[in-house]
Amino acid sequence: MDVSPEKTVSNAIDEVLSRLDHGTKAKMDITVTKAMLTTMVREAHVLQYKSALHELTEHLKERGVDTAAMEGSTSMFLEKVRFMQATALREFTADDHGKSSSEKTVCEVGFNAGHSALLWLLAGATRVVSFELGQHSYSHVAAEWLSVRFPGKLHLVMGDSMQSVPLYHTMFPDEKCNIVFIDGGHKFEHAKSDMLNFRKFVELSPSASLGHILLVDDTNMPEVGAAWAQAQAEGTVVEVGMVLSHCATAYNTPFSGSLHWNGNLFSETSESIRPYWAGSLSFGRYLP
Ligand SMILES: C[S@@+](CC[C@H](N)C(=O)[O-])C[C@H]1O[C@@H](n2cnc3c(N)ncnc32)[C@H](O)[C@@H]1O
Fold first, then answer.
1. What pLDDT score was predicted for residue 173?
2. What's the gap in Å between 189 CA and the centre of ligand 1?
3. What residues contact residue 86 under an 8 Å CB cut-off, 6+ apart?
4. pLDDT tens digit sequence for 42-79
């Protein structure tokens, strides 16, 4: 985690400025410059995440985990990573939303190897409550690693989310989530019950910009997509948009080694993605 976004941005600015002549520098448009800096900061977060993922992967390997055989994660999808980070950075720095700084909670289903939990924590979450079935022994190793790096911020709840999420709510009825991320069981009944059960964990507001954001991964998968469509048809949720993203080549090198700066965004080299395999992440909110 030694590549800080600030350092990366500072290096990138130096590189851009070195390419400009004196006249161009004098005429620089402040709006364009601000947009460029915002892009750089966002991309620096991508690099910081990549570096942290590498450390986590090395730790898992040292502990005997075959990382190439692990279940998939959102970290294999560069556009999903970008979107999730941008969402968290926006939610967690949006003081004008009237949130206190102590309210930076992400609730997710599907911990797996902790890749999405790591993304949320690096992006400023003060609390990640992650519900996980517990079928992979490496989840415990990853959780231990995250708990050392982010003390007191990760709360892993083991068990089938169809039971554990409602039970958790009865135990902690005041728990509220700023971001809900559903990425657990991909059967219709799992996805649907996760969508319904998390409604009790959010502030419901008629305004689209207040309260919470709901993310549902893998809506390209037929049963998850059907659950998402049914939740919309029933008026439980509203979709705001969808991110379509290509998959990186290898599980244990999530989009890494293949990112390059093209002067605007980091992009994946064409050989690092499988053009025939793209996944979607849908986002929206719960309706009051
Ligand atoms: C695709 S992985 C999650 C990836 C993770 N969110 C990430 O992006 O790094 C799905 C995870 O959901 C878990 N899972 C599957 N069915 C579940 C259930 N009924 N309740 C809780 N977790 C479940 C699996 O064990 C697996 O770890």
1. 95
2. 14
3. 42
4. 888 888 998 899 899 999 999 999 988 889 889 888 88
Please give the distance, rounded to the nearest whole angstrom, from the Cα atom of residue 111 to the centre of ligand 1. Answer: 6
What is the distance between the alpha carbons of residues 75 and 69, in angstroms, rounded to a whole number? 15
Q: Under the phi-then-psi rule, with left for phi > 0, alpha for psi from -120 to 50, and beta for the rest, what region is 235? A: left
In the reported structure, the alpha carbon of residue 128 is separated from the centroid of ligand 1 by a whole-number distance in angstroms of 15
* Residue with CA closest to ligand 1 atom 19: 160
Please tell me the distance from the alpha carbon of residue 5 to that of residue 204, in angstroms, as a whole number: 33
Q: pLDDT (tens digit, 9 = 90+) per residue, 74-132?
A: 988 888 998 999 899 888 875 444 444 567 999 999 999 999 999 999 999 999 999 99
Pairing type for strands 213-217 and 179-182 reads: parallel
DSSP symbols for 191-207: HHHHHHHGGGGS---SS
Pick from 111, 122, 195 the residue to mutate for probing ligand 1's pocket: most ligand atoms within 8 Å of its CB. Answer: 111
Q: Which residues line ligand 1 (CB under 6 A)?
A: 71-75, 109-112, 115-116, 131-133, 135-136, 160-162, 183-185, 190
Q: What is the pTM of this model?
A: 0.88
The length of the chain in residues reads: 288
CATH class held by domain 71-286? alpha beta
For residue 31, the CA-to-ligand 1 centroid distance in Å is: 42
Has residue 208 got a pLDDT over 90?
Answer: no
Residue nearest to atom 26 of ligand 1 (CA): 112
Calpha distance 111→210 (Å, rounded): 26
